[in-house]
Amino acid sequence: MKQKRVHIITMGCQMNVYDSEQMLRLLAPLNFRPTSQLHKADLIIINTCSIREKAEHKVYSLLGRLARMKRLRPDLMIGVGGCVAQQEGHRLFERAPHVDIVFGTFGLERLPSLVQQVNNQKKHIVDINPRGTSGLLCVTEPVFQTERATAFVTIMQGCDNFCTYCVVPYLRGREVSRKPEAILEEIRLLVKNGIREVTLIGQNVNSYGRKNGHGCNFPVLLEQVNDIEGLRRIRFTTSHPKDLSDQLINAFSRLDKLAAHIHLPVQSGSNRVLKRMNRGYTREDYLKKIAKLRSVRPDIAITSDIIVGFPGEETTDFEATVDLIQQVGFDSFFLFKYSDRPNVPAAKFSNKVPEAIKRKRFNRLSEIQGRFTLEKNKALVGTIQEVLVEGRSKKSHHQLTGRTPCNRSVNFSDCTARVGQVLPVRIVEAFSHSLLGSSVKGHEEYVGENGGISHAA
Ligand code: 5AD
Ligand code: SF4
Predict the structure, then answer these.
(1) Nearest ligand to residue 55 Cα
(2) For residue 164, is the peptide bond before it cis, meaning its omega torsion is within 30 degrees of 0?
(3) Which end of the chain is more exposed for a tag (fewer CB within 10 A), N or C?
(4) CATH of 288-376, one of 1.20.1530.20, 1.10.10.10, 3.30.450.40, 3.30.750.200
(5) Ligand 2 centroid, distance to 296 Cα (angstroms)
């Protein structure tokens, strides 16, 4: 069979990064090998995201660019997967007739058969059937394009929470947890292939195992992952504050491989808005959980997601968010301007916030966030951090890049270090989005104390 090349453009969240890797694994038996060069690909797949309006616009502008490529190379096969595909189905061909395959979020395992159908001259194939095991596939050998130290592992799919602004439960379906044995087997296989850090992913990992009766909840799963030999670090995302149990909070003090970082989206600091969002917690509940996290793991980095301009958000609501941000002192947060999504309840809410006000609120929080993050980064100057080497720095090919346990990027020079090593690095300079370090012990393997954070003598 002639070897072919596939290029996958991944948009949106970590779930999509994982799904794209699954696609590569599934296409390998059809003799497709990954290529990082778009113009060399026989098959281009866009794995789309429609969580916010902006993400959806990007998909169509990218498809416009691919139309030109298809005119020059009619044999080029183009597939669109993920949330936009699930949402649009056949409609996608109206705006982008050059697309060959539209496949949704549920039946990834059917992708090879869809590709074969196009090879057999079929046109405009759509599969948005909500039956399938997408993201919960059986375990196969990973396909890596370059040497890697970190990987995502899906532990659950879908969401039952129905936050009023969010499209995920409609496009990714209800919550389904993957069997613990499959997760553990996949992680062992990844470790065998050089992976040292895994991020367990799902829309709401805290409710892992709640429905499926695998006899294992999330903290228990974490404990089993922690026991895997050769694995150095565990992360997870995303956590819903209402489901963050004391058992999970305590895991941060018990499990030595669990990195000192939690992403805990708060969305708003106003109880009135949180209620209209259907988030299921108050700002007081949230602040209590933050205090508990810090009491068991004082060095924990806390990051979040915040939406500005939710329908009906008044100045006082916004000020409550500003106040909460200042009280928590997040290490960083992702900021979003509310956008209507198809068929979600909030799209029908009245009192939409004008774009200009959304922008003003966004800019104000963005300024606060920039200041906070820089301050937190500066506080690390002079400390020695345990850095897991991930590869060459994108900015300077002479430097390596890696992450601290609290998820900060560190660039540093060390000509002997290898991808996957954990090294002590002294932080010498702080920027808004990264740190500059200098390697302390050359290439020796290093086991940190205090969750990997120690202070310079
Ligand atoms: N508008 C703006 N932001 C949104 N998010 C989800 N839906 C919307 C929407 N309709 C944000 C939330 C979520 C993150 C992944 O995207 O903050 O946590
Ligand atoms: Fe969307 Fe809410 Fe589910 Fe997160 S918890 S995926 S924001 S519905």
Answers:
(1) 1
(2) no
(3) C
(4) 3.30.750.200
(5) 27
Q: What is the pLDDT of residue 134?
A: 57
Q: Which fold has domain 4-127?
A: Rossmann fold (3.40.50)
- Give the CATH class of 138-259: alpha beta
Nearest Cα neighbor of 222 from 208, 211, 212, 210 is 208
Phi then psi dihedrals of residue 78, to 5 deg: -120, 130
Render pLDDT for 243-271 as a digit per residue (tens, 0 to 9).
999 999 999 999 999 999 999 999 999 99
Determine the distance separating the centroid of ligand 1 and the alpha carbon of 252, expressed in angstroms: 27
DSSP string for 318-387: HHHHHHHHHHHT-SEEEEEE----TT-GGGG-SSPPPHHHHHHHHHHHHHHHHHHHHHHHHTTTT-EEEE
Output the residue whose Cα is nearest ligand 2's atom 2: 163
- Residue at token pair 């090349």: 5
Which of 159, 174, 238, 239 has most ligand 2 atoms within 8 Å of its beta carbon, as the pocket-test mutant? 159
Question: 184, exposed or middle or buried, with CB in 10 Å at 0-12, 13-18, 19+?
Answer: middle
Closest CA to 325 of 265, 281, 279, 276: 265
**Tokens in use for 80?**
């669109």
**Pairing mode of beta strands 156-157, 150-154:** unpaired
Distance CA 432, CA 455 (A): 21
Confidence tier at 2 by pLDDT (50, 70, 90) = confident
- pLDDT tens profile 53-64: 888 888 989 999
Distance from the CA of 57 to the center of ligand 2, in angstroms?
Answer: 21
Q: Where in the chain is CATH 2.40.50.140?
A: 384-451
| CATH fourth-level superfamily of 384-451 | Nucleic acid-binding proteins (2.40.50.140)
Q: What is the DSSP letter of 149?
A: S
Q: Which residues share a beta bridge with 257?
A: none
